[in-house]
Amino acid sequence: MTTTTTLAQVYREHPIHLRDIIPLDFNSIRSVPDSHVWPISDDFSSDHQLMVPIIDLKDPNAVKLAGHACETWGVFQVINHGIHLNLLEEVESEARRLFSLPTQTKMKALREPAGATGYGLARISPFFPKYMWHEGFTIMDSPTDHARALWPTDNARFCDVIERYQKQMKVLAEKLTDLILESLAIFREDLNWDVGSPSTALQLNSYPPCPNPNRAMGLAPHTDTSFLTILYQGSISGLQIFKQGAGWISMLPVTGALVVNVGDLLHILTNARFPSVLHRAVLNQEGSHRVSVAYFYGLPIECSVSPLLKLLDSGENPRYRPVTVKEYVDIKSKYFEEPLTSIRI
């Protein structure tokens, strides 16, 4: 009998030191410590004249629009996506309830060094010389065990909201995947993805008020390992994406909209036609507590990903060799800066 490898098991092979897991006690901080001071940069501001595409899933041209947005931006916002605004507000409320707990309580659900779920700093922390003004809570599959650690007698509401959100996000992610594949004139039947369940994760992000938001970074620039990511950013801005030729651009929140961005696996599949968009989180200047919720949708761990030959133009060669999802996660866990370089042909 074969056992299916999970995303959590893959991350267990790449333990992280506790110093890169334990967040600051943000409630007791009156100034930004040197460990969290980033160099002053004039690129923290961005060009608000450029607007990331907003796509209505009920638009008859949604397929074409999504494909164009993926190719020219690597990201778009989506409306009429089927996720009720009430559920979005509920999941934000539960995230705020979690991050508002006393530090000693949140530490009861601290992510283990070889763990993939629970409370802690972003997994990308070890790859940067300074820490980020961020705390997160990662969920894969059921949130029950960690929720019980946080709320021994009052965890039912949190678990119910999170589980409903996960189910609806999975449905939406599959719908968006089919939409994007259709824009490329390919279908799931063309791909060998029937080797297990999709690898998914839900990430609750907290960016507490900062004494000097110009000197700290919410989340450092990075791309997502996923096939695609769906982000609910609430009503407080902070997300920025990098567009070649334009620089950093703020993703201004649209009520009820969700941000969809291309991940590394989709970038590989399209032979770099769709950019895996570089993005970051800057801190709110008004001192508001910003919360966001990211759903990472990936392919089965044992799935092999490579540029689709039918997408290549005449005379164009594949840029990347075939790689399994597990192998790519391993590579990015070691070589965060240039993971795609290591599989380039």
UniProtKB/TrEMBL annotation:
Residues 198-299 form the Fe2OG dioxygenase domain. It comes from the Eukaryota. SUPFAM superfamilies: Clavaminate synthase-like (SSF51197). Keywords: Dioxygenase, Iron, Metal-binding, Oxidoreductase. Its EC number is 1.14.11.15. Pfam families: 2OG-FeII_Oxy (PF03171), DIOX_N (PF14226). The keyword DNA-binding does not apply. The keyword Nuclease does not apply. GO terms for molecular function: gibberellin 3-beta-dioxygenase activity; metal ion binding. Its cofactor is L-ascorbate. One of its GO terms (biological process) is gibberellin biosynthetic process. Pathway: Hormone biosynthesis; Plant hormone biosynthesis; gibberellin biosynthesis. Belongs to the iron/ascorbate-dependent oxidoreductase family. GA3OX subfamily. This is gibberellin 3beta-dioxygenase.
